[in-house]
Design a protein that fits this description.
heterodimer; A: alpha/beta; four-stranded antiparallel beta sheet; B: alpha/beta; ten-stranded mixed beta sheet; three-stranded antiparallel beta sheet; 58% helix; elongated
Chain lengths: 254, 513
């Protein structure tokens, strides 16, 4: 069974169609990268999948549980609030701009949601959170406030915060775009190690090399549709579509 | 701006500018007072309380008219002066007179008890202090006033008759039997209080009472028993006998040729006038005989103690307003930001009205509204409640908009991150957004709090005796402006503490960006 399933998703902003008929499924343990030029709709796709935007048409489900009660290609009708809230436990999202809570320490950023949302035991959560900080190399910063950290450190805390919720999958929305190239490497290293642990991940990225390296599957989007889809070898090394070729050329990959 | 540069050049420049402005202002004042006392600029400025019919008030056409103003006009006509009718705040009359911004106080001005404070004309009206009660009241004579709420005008002869240095023992005793002796700034609010049931009786001048009864129909009646009798004269700045003699001379002429009596008749005051009668010149003669005498009775300690009493009431308004208006402001802010159009528009209209009308008016509406809109009769204890309600709803409107700006200033990514982590709406607001909003809104909130400290003085509109009301009363009673300066110092100290505390809180919130 696929962990994430999207069928016939359409989304418009003020009459301007941003996503037209997107269908997508992600299997457990799979690492999927979404590539494409700016404005191609990849971020909107991610925001629809994470309930930050509402879909106009289509269906959405996590791990076999439907978030929508309409039939595919009908106008989207969402399930009740409790169902949606429960489904949000399936995934975590790492933002381009980190969005750490500035008034909480690093540790509190990690443990607050598990304790106050998931009602888990605070001591246990704290122990896990410290282990997670250790994993992203920031255990010495647990008492620091976000504005005392560098951009790269903030993003590693943001990844740890998402993981502290024990999600089944992680979304990354251009996680390195706000960072300097030399800092990017640290983030990618953390993500690579997650991939090695079989974490299910959907990554919107401009890091073609990284996508090629770490992904099981790559999607190329343009103009609100999936133009090409396949293994990194197929899409990145031997693109068949003209638009994919043009994009990769511009990105200096081919 | 470069701070060093600011200190080095601009600050001294500012200081010089301020010093110049101040000295210029003062030199103007002294010049003005000199020229006025000599009266060589040919204007005659009469200070009067514009809410004191029939002696001086604003008529339906917006003109200042009255018995005293007609007399003053006639004096000016005969002397070839130009009359300037200057309405004044009654509590500030001494400052006006002493600073030379008016030439005399001519406004049903009681001489009794103030003999040594001014240079007086002859008495021209004999007036008595009488009691007005609602027609259906069970008060028949003075002793029935025991346990009642009695209203007098601040610094009026009625007040002096009860609490002044020369008050008779009977009147002091009578006053002690009241449940409360309340001071209001004008007779209009006195009669509103009487009508709405929040007070039981008004004690006022006989002439004023007659005028009010005539205009207010049969809702009120006069007690036969009188509290005291008194005389009115024209008050000039102490020592300005030259101007006094000029005015007195003309008045005597007017009396001799019948003009004075004719004007009195025009104002239905024929029964009260006493110019030229026996005893009318007593005060003037006593003054001409006497050398000057110093009679400053108020000690500094007395002023401080009186103001500190008022400060307690000021603090009560301040803290209760903050305690209630901050949460109410948050609620209004939530409504203002709500998607529900009904809630949204209720909040918008609320904010628009409360920010768009004077706080003093709102206080009056809160206090008198229940009676005039719904006929609910008001108890006197509602006065304080009304002050608090008025301040709370007003400040909530400002806080609501400050909070909205604070909330909108929190990046949308904070809401999104909380949403993805599964926080509920209320968790998101109170755990994530609210602390960041508080930090952002501290500087504007501090501004409002400082304004609130000073705004508490507006409670005088409902005759609530906070510090500034008392300062004005003490200042007026002693013909001394020091209480006002002391009140100013108290306000400054209060705000200094507010600034210090808010600064500490701001510093404490500095741990995050």
């Amino acid at each position: 069974m696929s962990l994430l399933e999207i069928n016939h998703l359409k989304k418009s902003f003020h009459g301007n169609e941003v996503l037209s008929d997107i269908s997508l499924s992600v299997q457990e343990g799979e690492v999927l990268s979404i590539l494409g030029p700016s404005g191609s709709g990849k971020s909107t796709l991610l925001r629809c999948a994470t309930f930050l935007e509402t879909m106009d048409y289509g269906t959405l489900s996590y791990d076999g549980e439907a978030a929508t009660v309409n039939n595919a290609s009908e106008p989207t009708k969402y399930a009740d609030k409790d169902t949606i809230r429960k489904l949000k436990n399936n995934f975590g999202l790492v933002f381009q701009s980190f969005n750490l809570f500035p008034h909480y320490t690093v540790l509190k950023n990690l443990i607050d949601a598990p304790v106050s949302v998931q009602k888990r035991d605070k001591d246990e959560v704290t122990k896990e959170a410290i282990a997670l900080l250790d994993k992203v190399g920031l255990s010495d910063k647990k008492d620091a406030y976000p504005d005392q950290l560098s951009g790269g450190q903030k993003q590693r805390v943001a990844i740890a915060r998402a993981l502290a919720m024990k999600p089944k999958m992680l979304f990354f929305d251009e996680p390195t775009s706000a960072l300097d190239p030399e800092i990017t490497a640290g983030i990618l290293k953390v993500m690579r190690s997650l991939a090695e642990e079989n974490m299910t991940m959907v990554i919107v990225t401009h890091e073609i090399g990284f996508a090629k390296n770490v992904s099981d599957r790559v999607i190329f989007m343009d103009g609100g549709v999936i133009v090409e889809e396949g293994t990194p070898a197929e899409v990145i090394d031997n693109p068949s579509n003209e638009r994919t070729k043009a994009f990769l050329q511009k990105m200096d990959v081919k | 701006m470069n701070r060093k540069k600011f200190n080095k050049f601009i600050l001294p420049a500012l200081l010089v500018a301020i010093a110049t402005a101040v000295s210029f202002t003062f030199s103007n004042v002294s010049q003005a007072s000199n020229s006025k006392s000599d009266n060589d600029d040919n204007t005659f400025i009469v200070g009067f309380d514009a809410e004191f019919p029939p002696y001086g008030y604003k008529d339906d056409n917006g003109e200042y008219v009255g018995f005293d103003l007609d007399l003053a006009q006639e004096v000016c006509n005969r002397r070839g002066w130009t009359l300037v009718k200057q309405p004044i705040d009654w509590d500030s009359k001494d400052m006006e007179l002493n600073s030379g911004s008016i030439d005399c106080i001519w406004n049903g001005f009681t001489m009794n008890g103030r003999e040594d404070d001014y240079t007086w004309s002859s008495a021209y009206v004999d007036n008595s202090q009488v009691v007005v009660v609602p027609t259906n009241s069970d008060i028949k004579e003075l002793k029935d006033l025991a346990g009642k709420v009695v209203i007098v005008q601040a610094d009026s002869s009625a007040l002096a008759a009860f609490t002044g240095d020369d008050a008779t023992d009977e009147n002091k005793e009578l006053c002690a039997s009241f449940s409360e002796l309340q001071q209001v700034s004008d007779y209009n609010s006195a009669f509103m209080s009487l009508e709405s049931g929040s007070a039981d009786a008004v004690v006022l001048d006989y002439g004023v009472a007659n005028y009010q009864l005539k205009n207010r129909g049969d809702k009120f009646r006069l007690l036969e028993e009188k509290v005291s009798s008194e005389q009115y004269g024209i008050g000039f700045k102490k020592g300005n006998t030259k101007l006094r003699d000029e005015v007195q001379e003309t008045l005597n002429e007017m009396l001799a040729d019948g003009t004075f009596d004719k004007i009195a008749e025009d104002w239905d005051l024929s029964d009260s006038v006493c110019l030229g009668q026996e005893g009318a010149d007593a005060v003037m003669q006593a003054e001409n005989d006497a050398a000057s005498s110093g009679s400053s009775s108020s000690s500094f300690g007395y002023i401080i103690i009186e103001l500190l009493k008022g400060l307690l009431n000021t603090l009560a308004i301040f803290f209760l307003t903050l305690i209630f208006s901050l949460p109410l402001g948050l609620l209004v802010c939530a409504m203002r930001m709500a998607k529900n159009p009904i809630l949204h528009w209720i909040a918008r209209v609320y904010i628009s009205i409360l920010r768009g009308t004077p706080l003093m008016l709102q206080l009056l509406v809160v206090f008198f509204g229940p009676y005039y809109l719904f006929g609910v009769s008001l108890s006197n204890s509602f006065r304080f409640t009304a002050v608090i309600i008025g301040f709370v709803i007003n400040y909530a409107a400002y806080f609501a908009e400050i909070f909205r700006a604070g909330i909108e200033g929190v990046p949308s990514g904070q809401w999104e991150a909380a949403d993805v982590l599964g926080y509920s709406k209320s968790q998101t607001f109170f755990k994530i957004i609210f602390p960041q909003m508080v930090k952002r809104t501290l500087p504007p909130v501090t501004n409002e709090v400082i304004t609130l400290v000073k705004d508490t003085s507006l409670a005088f509109a409902l005759a609530y005796t906070e510090m500034f009301t008392i300062a004005k009363q003490v200042a007026a009673a002693n013909s001394n402006i020091i209480p006002l300066f002391v009140a100013g110092i108290f306000y400054y100290i209060f705000n200094f503490v507010v600034e210090f505390v808010m600064g500490k809180i701001e510093k404490k919130m500095n741990y995050f960006e």
